[in-house]
Protein backbone atom coordinates (compact mmCIF):
# COMPACT_ATOMS: atom_id res chain seq x y z
CA UNK A 1 0.00 0.00 0.00
CA UNK A 2 2.82 2.39 0.92
CA UNK A 3 4.52 1.68 -2.40
CA UNK A 4 1.35 2.52 -4.35
CA UNK A 5 0.98 5.81 -2.47
CA UNK A 6 4.59 6.64 -3.23
CA UNK A 7 4.16 5.94 -6.96
CA UNK A 8 1.03 8.10 -7.22
CA UNK A 9 2.70 11.00 -5.43
CA UNK A 10 5.75 10.73 -7.64
CA UNK A 11 3.68 10.88 -10.82
CA UNK A 12 1.88 13.98 -9.54
CA UNK A 13 5.20 15.77 -9.15
CA UNK A 14 6.47 15.18 -12.70
CA UNK A 15 5.56 18.73 -13.75
CA UNK A 16 7.99 20.32 -11.25
CA UNK A 17 11.43 21.61 -12.30
CA UNK A 18 14.08 18.88 -12.17
CA UNK A 19 15.78 20.02 -8.93
CA UNK A 20 12.50 20.39 -7.03
CA UNK A 21 11.27 17.11 -8.46
CA UNK A 22 14.45 15.37 -7.30
CA UNK A 23 14.08 16.70 -3.74
CA UNK A 24 10.39 15.83 -3.73
CA UNK A 25 11.16 12.33 -4.97
CA UNK A 26 13.64 11.76 -2.12
CA UNK A 27 11.19 13.07 0.46
CA UNK A 28 8.36 10.85 -0.80
CA UNK A 29 10.72 7.88 -1.11
CA UNK A 30 11.82 8.30 2.49
CA UNK A 31 8.21 8.48 3.68
CA UNK A 32 7.35 5.24 1.89
CA UNK A 33 10.50 3.46 3.06
CA UNK A 34 9.88 4.48 6.66
CA UNK A 35 6.39 2.97 6.44
CA UNK A 36 8.03 -0.26 5.33
CA UNK A 37 10.59 0.01 8.15
CA UNK A 38 13.70 0.11 5.99
CA UNK A 39 14.18 3.81 5.40
CA UNK A 40 16.86 4.77 7.89
CA UNK A 41 19.75 2.69 6.57
CA UNK A 42 19.03 3.42 2.90
CA UNK A 43 18.53 7.15 3.41
CA UNK A 44 21.63 7.43 5.58
CA UNK A 45 23.67 5.99 2.72
CA UNK A 46 22.28 8.58 0.29
CA UNK A 47 22.91 11.42 2.76
CA UNK A 48 26.51 10.40 3.44
CA UNK A 49 27.27 10.10 -0.26
CA UNK A 50 26.04 13.64 -0.87
CA UNK A 51 27.85 15.04 2.17
CA UNK A 52 31.17 13.68 0.89
CA UNK A 53 30.63 15.32 -2.49
CA UNK A 54 33.32 18.03 -2.92
CA UNK A 55 30.74 20.26 -4.62
CA UNK A 56 28.90 20.79 -1.33
CA UNK A 57 29.38 24.47 -0.37
CA UNK A 58 30.57 25.01 3.19
CA UNK A 59 29.03 27.87 5.21
CA UNK A 60 32.32 29.34 6.50
CA UNK A 61 33.08 32.60 4.68
CA UNK A 62 36.65 33.33 3.61
CA UNK A 63 37.99 36.71 4.72
CA UNK A 64 41.10 38.63 3.75
CA UNK A 65 44.03 37.98 6.04
CA UNK A 66 45.12 40.95 8.10
CA UNK A 67 48.70 39.94 7.25
CA UNK A 68 48.37 39.65 3.47
CA UNK A 69 51.37 41.16 1.71
CA UNK A 70 53.61 41.13 4.78
CA UNK A 71 57.05 39.46 4.62
CA UNK A 72 57.05 35.71 5.32
CA UNK A 73 59.27 36.03 8.39
CA UNK A 74 56.73 38.27 10.13
CA UNK A 75 54.44 36.34 12.46
CA UNK A 76 50.85 37.10 13.40
CA UNK A 77 52.24 38.85 16.47
CA UNK A 78 53.71 41.44 14.06
CA UNK A 79 57.33 40.55 14.83
CA UNK A 80 60.03 38.43 13.16
CA UNK A 81 60.00 34.90 14.52
CA UNK A 82 62.62 32.16 14.68
CA UNK A 83 61.42 28.54 14.78
CA UNK A 84 62.19 26.97 18.19
CA UNK A 85 64.20 23.75 18.37
CA UNK A 86 61.28 21.90 19.95
CA UNK A 87 57.53 22.35 20.45
CA UNK A 88 56.51 24.07 23.70
CA UNK A 89 55.56 21.84 26.61
CA UNK A 90 51.92 22.37 27.50
CA UNK A 91 49.85 20.63 30.18
CA UNK A 92 47.11 18.64 28.46
CA UNK A 93 44.13 16.60 29.67
CA UNK A 94 44.75 12.86 29.64
CA UNK A 95 41.42 11.75 28.19
CA UNK A 96 42.02 12.77 24.56
CA UNK A 97 44.41 13.86 21.83
CA UNK A 98 43.06 17.43 21.72
CA UNK A 99 45.08 18.59 18.71
CA UNK A 100 43.04 21.81 18.54
CA UNK A 101 43.63 22.59 22.21
CA UNK A 102 47.37 22.12 21.88
CA UNK A 103 47.56 24.22 18.72
CA UNK A 104 45.63 27.09 20.36
CA UNK A 105 47.67 27.09 23.54
CA UNK A 106 50.94 26.80 21.63
CA UNK A 107 49.94 29.80 19.50
CA UNK A 108 49.26 31.80 22.66
CA UNK A 109 52.50 30.74 24.30
CA UNK A 110 54.74 31.35 21.29
CA UNK A 111 53.05 34.33 19.63
CA UNK A 112 50.80 35.83 22.30
CA UNK A 113 47.73 35.41 20.10
CA UNK A 114 44.45 33.87 21.21
CA UNK A 115 42.10 31.71 19.18
CA UNK A 116 38.51 31.00 20.16
CA UNK A 117 38.34 27.41 21.36
CA UNK A 118 36.54 24.61 19.57
CA UNK A 119 37.04 21.23 17.95
CA UNK A 120 39.34 21.12 14.93
CA UNK A 121 36.48 21.26 12.42
CA UNK A 122 34.83 24.18 14.26
CA UNK A 123 37.79 26.56 14.47
CA UNK A 124 37.34 28.23 11.08
CA UNK A 125 33.80 29.29 11.93
CA UNK A 126 34.72 30.44 15.42
CA UNK A 127 37.75 32.42 14.28
CA UNK A 128 38.57 33.65 10.76
CA UNK A 129 39.13 31.53 7.66
CA UNK A 130 41.63 33.19 5.30
CA UNK A 131 42.12 30.30 2.86
CA UNK A 132 40.07 27.27 1.79
CA UNK A 133 41.06 24.53 -0.60
CA UNK A 134 39.04 24.75 -3.81
CA UNK A 135 37.60 28.19 -3.08
CA UNK A 136 37.85 30.29 -6.26
CA UNK A 137 38.42 33.44 -4.19
CA UNK A 138 41.65 31.99 -2.77
CA UNK A 139 45.09 31.33 -4.29
CA UNK A 140 45.48 27.70 -5.36
CA UNK A 141 48.52 27.22 -3.13
CA UNK A 142 48.11 27.73 0.63
CA UNK A 143 51.85 28.45 0.89
CA UNK A 144 51.10 31.91 -0.49
CA UNK A 145 48.96 32.70 2.55
CA UNK A 146 50.44 31.06 5.64
CA UNK A 147 52.32 33.08 8.26
CA UNK A 148 53.82 32.06 11.59
CA UNK A 149 50.92 31.69 14.03
CA UNK A 150 48.29 30.45 11.58
CA UNK A 151 46.35 27.29 12.37
CA UNK A 152 46.08 24.77 9.54
CA UNK A 153 43.03 22.56 9.13
CA UNK A 154 44.38 19.25 7.80
CA UNK A 155 42.41 16.37 6.29
CA UNK A 156 43.98 12.97 6.98
CA UNK A 157 42.21 10.16 5.08
CA UNK A 158 43.07 7.52 7.69
CA UNK A 159 41.80 9.53 10.69
CA UNK A 160 39.28 7.70 12.86
CA UNK A 161 37.59 11.05 13.56
CA UNK A 162 36.50 11.66 9.96
CA UNK A 163 32.77 12.14 9.48
CA UNK A 164 30.62 13.39 6.63
CA UNK A 165 30.16 16.89 8.08
CA UNK A 166 33.83 17.43 8.98
CA UNK A 167 36.06 18.79 6.19
CA UNK A 168 39.08 17.95 8.35
CA UNK A 169 39.73 16.64 11.85
CA UNK A 170 43.31 17.71 12.58
CA UNK A 171 44.81 21.12 13.34
CA UNK A 172 48.47 22.09 13.41
CA UNK A 173 50.20 25.34 14.31
CA UNK A 174 52.36 26.76 11.53
CA UNK A 175 55.50 28.23 13.10
CA UNK A 176 57.61 29.29 10.11
CA UNK A 177 60.46 28.35 7.79
CA UNK A 178 63.56 26.52 9.01
CA UNK A 179 66.31 25.49 6.58
CA UNK A 180 63.90 25.95 3.69
CA UNK A 181 61.21 23.75 5.26
CA UNK A 182 57.75 24.79 6.45
CA UNK A 183 57.54 23.74 10.09
CA UNK A 184 54.46 22.91 12.14
CA UNK A 185 53.96 21.99 15.79
CA UNK A 186 51.08 19.63 16.49
CA UNK A 187 49.81 16.88 18.75
CA UNK A 188 48.87 13.38 17.57
CA UNK A 189 47.99 10.44 19.82
CA UNK A 190 49.29 12.23 22.90
CA UNK A 191 52.62 13.00 21.23
CA UNK A 192 53.78 16.56 20.61
CA UNK A 193 55.62 16.78 17.29
CA UNK A 194 57.74 19.14 15.23
CA UNK A 195 57.29 18.26 11.56
CA UNK A 196 58.21 19.37 8.09
CA UNK A 197 54.69 20.22 6.92
CA UNK A 198 55.06 19.21 3.30
CA UNK A 199 56.83 15.94 4.13
CA UNK A 200 54.16 15.13 6.70
CA UNK A 201 51.33 15.77 4.24
CA UNK A 202 52.97 13.55 1.64
CA UNK A 203 53.63 10.70 4.08
CA UNK A 204 49.99 10.66 5.24
CA UNK A 205 48.40 11.40 1.85
CA UNK A 206 46.93 14.37 3.69
CA UNK A 207 46.11 17.91 2.59
CA UNK A 208 45.67 21.37 4.09
CA UNK A 209 42.06 22.40 3.61
CA UNK A 210 41.89 25.61 5.64
CA UNK A 211 44.13 28.37 6.97
CA UNK A 212 42.81 30.07 10.09
CA UNK A 213 43.76 33.18 12.00
CA UNK A 214 42.22 34.83 15.08
CA UNK A 215 39.76 37.68 14.83
Question: How does this structure look, described?
Answer:
The protein is α+β, with helices and mostly antiparallel strands and 215 residues long. The chain folds into 2 domains: 50 residues, no CATH class; 115 residues, no CATH class. It is 31% helix and 19% strand. The protein has 6 helices and 6 strands. It has a 6-stranded antiparallel beta sheet. Strand 3 and strand 4 form a beta hairpin. Helix 1 runs antiparallel to helix 2. The N terminus is likely disordered.
- The N- and C-terminal alpha carbons lie at a distance of 57 Å
Q: How many whole angstroms does the radius of gyration measure?
A: 22 Å
Question: How would you sum up the major sheet?
Answer: 6 strands, antiparallel
> Unreliable runs, pLDDT <50, ≥5 residues?
1-16, 32-58
Number of helices: 6
Output the helix-strand order: HHHHHEEEEEHE
Structural class: alpha+beta
Task: Tell me the count of domains.
Answer: 2
Instruction: Average the pLDDT over all residues and give the rounded result.
Output: 77
Helix content: 25-40%
Strand content: 15-25%
Number of strands: 6
Any idea what the shape is?
Answer: globular
Side by side, the strands of the main sheet go 1-6-2-3-4-5
By oligomeric state, this entry counts as: single chain
